[in-house]
Amino acid sequence: MHQTQKRPTALAIWLVAAGVIGLIAAFALTIEKFEVLVDPTHVAACDFNPLVQCGANLNAPQGSVFGFPNPLIGLVGWMAPLVVGMALLAGARFSKWFWALFSVGMTFAFGFVCWLIWQSIFFIGTLCPWCMVTWVVTIPSFYAVVLHSARIGAIPLPNSLRRTAGTLMGWLPLLATVSYAIVAIIAVVRLPQVLDYIFG
Questions:
Q1: Scanning 17, 112, 137, 182, which has its CA 20 to 30 A from the CA of 74?
Q2: Confidence (pLDDT) at 1
Q3: Measured between alpha carbons, how far is 23 from 88 in angstroms, rounded to an integer?
Q4: Is the pLDDT of residue 191 over 90?
Q5: Distance between the two ends of the chain, CA-based, in angstroms?
Q6: What value does the mean pLDDT of the chain take?
Q7: How far is CA 57 from the centre of its chain?
Q8: Within 13 Å, how many C-alpha atoms sit on residue 160's CB side?
Q9: Distance (Å, rounded) from C-alpha 107 to C-alpha 187?
Q10: Which of 42-51, 87-96, 110-119, 170-179 has the lowest mean pLDDT?
Q11: How would you write 107-121 as a 3-class SS string?
Q12: CA distance 43 to 85
């Protein structure tokens, strides 16, 4: 397979870490959903108070957007970054079309997570701990994959934008931090009791 740049080791390590963390979060939420199905009175282990809990999110319509629990999407979806990361570490070289398709998948994941963040804050009114873990790893994973795809030419862009994407790869921690800060500000503005929970 053709690759125009050296093996992206840092990206590979991140994808493996994100895949593992995402799978853990998805597995924990799946178990909680099964517990609720078996016992409707079950209180999830991640239900700490009315604001920080998993139960409301799992039981809301938004928790089963496609007709089945959202965590099942995570159990399947997070295998992709994990496998891709492990393959890269093992020396695999992927073609540009692969990175383009991978970027499409990560873009869907990012869009879905943004929608879930919006629904959680503005409509459900809770912050799900395991959901937030998923948000934390999805956001930088999206940036990393799309920027890498852009810099190697998998996404057709002018050379100037490809160089910009390469530069932005070095600013990924800042991009992720700014994104987290935006979500945190929105949550605090919409759910002011967040501050009471943090400082109370």
A1: 182
A2: 37
A3: 19
A4: no
A5: 56
A6: 92
A7: 16
A8: 0
A9: 23
A10: 42-51
A11: HHHHHHHHHHHHHHH
A12: 36
CA distance 42 to 4: 53
Single-letter amino acid code for the residue at 21: I
The β-bridge partners of 52 are: 127
The secondary structure of 142-155 as a DSSP string is: HHHHHHHHHHTTSS
Identity (one letter) of the amino acid at 1? M
User: What structural domains and CATH numbers belong to the chain?
Assistant: 9-199 (1.20.1440.130)
Q: Is the separation of the CB atoms in 110 and 8 below 8 Å?
A: no
pTM above the 0.85 mark?
A: yes
Residues listed for the chain: 200
- Both tokens assigned to 35: 């517990």
User: What are the residue ranges of helices labelled H in the chain?
Assistant: 9-38, 55-59, 70-77, 79-89, 96-119, 129-151, 159-169, 172-190, 193-199
